[in-house]
Amino acid sequence: MNQKQFAKLLDLLPQTYEQIYGQSVEQRQAECPEQPTLRSYEELILFNLFFLKSAFSFDLLAFTTDIDDSTPNPIKILVYW
After folding, report:
1. Measured distance CA(24)–CA(30) in Å, rounded
2. How far, in Å, CA of 69 to CA of 33, rounded?
3. Which of 2, 3, 26, 71 is deepest in the core (most CB within 10 A)?
4. Which of residues 71 and 12 earns the better pLDDT score?
5. Which burial class, exposed, middle or buried, applies to 38 when counting CB atoms under 10 A from its CB (0-12, 13-18, 19+)?
6. What residues contact 17, with CB distance under 8 A and at least 6 apart?
7. For all residues of the chain together, what is the average pLDDT?
């Protein structure tokens, strides 16, 4: 993926995210009782690209990204972090 393709994803993600969850990442994070690990749309994209490219198990992915390894799936990671 080149920089132009990444920028296009970054332009599309906020609108798509808000359509799915009904609020922005920032609004969801304001409601989160703990400091989120992924704090921006850019970090969400990078995390997902890393996950897809590496094909790690969730335990190994949690270890390499310092995210709670009890998180059972990437959807929950996106929703809460």
Report:
1. 10
2. 18
3. 71
4. 12
5. buried
6. 24, 25, 41, 44
7. 78
- Is the model's pLDDT at 72 over the cut of 80? no
Query: Which position has the token pair 């990444």?
Result: 6
Alpha-carbon radius of gyration of the chain: 13
pLDDT in tens, 31-58: 888 888 788 899 888 888 887 777 667 6
Q: How far apart are CA 58 and CA 74, in angstroms?
A: 8
Domain ranges of the chain: 3-80
The yes-or-no verdict on residue 71 having pLDDT over 90 is: no
Greatest pairwise CA separation for the chain in angstroms: 35
